[in-house]
Fold:
Amino acid sequence: MSTMPRPATEARKIPASTPTPLRLVAGGATADTLASGPSVPAPPLQVANEDREICAISRSTVQAAIEVLAGTRPVQQLARRLDERCLAALQHRAALTRRVPCGASPTAGRLHRNPSVRSVRACRVSADVYEASAVVVEELRVRAVALRLERSRLAWRVTVLEIG
Structure:
């Protein structure tokens, strides 16, 4: 009987075994890591995930701020996201925008109509500070928005908001 080499697909068959069930443990450890030794703290939030989170926060904050300027959203809805100075400045600008009479210019009545955030970019300045920019498209124009976010008590707050 001659010995022929086995085809590559039949060479190694790994027996199917049932994996050990994982259970959640405080600190992000699993049953396997607890059995292997002392608990190691979970790694900090990855920068890529944090960048996505900052972009999402920036996008929703910018959209809401533009809606405040348009008069379709109350400024108090941004109280948790903006610090006191930004909130006061946005409220003041919204009041000034509403004061402009629609008859002063043919386009004044259409300002801030149908705003949508086209794109958002974020840049990490330090572990607790990000700076972001956004492009907002309205019916008559395109505008830029810059903001600075700082982490305070495990929440991100906008400390600078510049709407162009």
